[in-house]
Amino acid sequence: MKTHVELFPFVIKDDTVHYGKSRADITGTGVNPDAAVRSMLDKFGFFGPVEESVMFVHSTSWRFEDEGSIVLTYMAYCRLLAPDPRLPLTLACTDVENARQSDSLRPRPEIIQEHHVVSHGLRHLSFLACEDGDAGSARIIGEDERRALSIFIPQMAGQFSQ
Length: 162
Prior knowledge:
The protein is an alpha/beta fold and 162 residues long. The chain has helices at 33-43, 50-53, 114-130, 136-141, 143-149; strands at residues 2-13, 16-19, 22-25, 54-65, 69-78, 89-92, 100-101, 159-160. The strands form 2 sheets. Strands 1, 2, 3, 4, 5 and 6 form a 6-stranded mixed sheet that branches. The protein has a two-stranded parallel sheet with strand order 7-8. A hairpin with a 2-residue loop joins strand 1 (2-13) and strand 2 (16-19). It is globular, with a radius of gyration of 16 Å. The termini are far apart. The mean pLDDT is 80.
């Protein structure tokens, strides 16, 4: 089985998520996925150093793909002004939606598209940032970033279809 690391660096500006995407095959390499993500951020040109341009990185999900791969997904909130050519893709904040499973005994939704993965990551990060009772996340990620993530409905996982 193959193992891939998928990275979505992003910034939120004017009710729009601006993001980039990178994917690396780490099958059989023994590479720590976190180290692979750091390398991917470097290839995006976010070093300078990374600490100056990336606020935080978090693994938000994993999924099995039908061709036999496990994909580990990471989101990286960037300190960039949008638009930035490194973040050419967009998702309106109003279009954030998760994939839904159609069978309660089959947890993986039949169709998972890129916007579902990004949406899930944003809601996951919103949960971490907004459901923090002692506001420790504000110290880690910053109050502005916490406010930006608060526009999404906090959620740790997908949902059943209704």
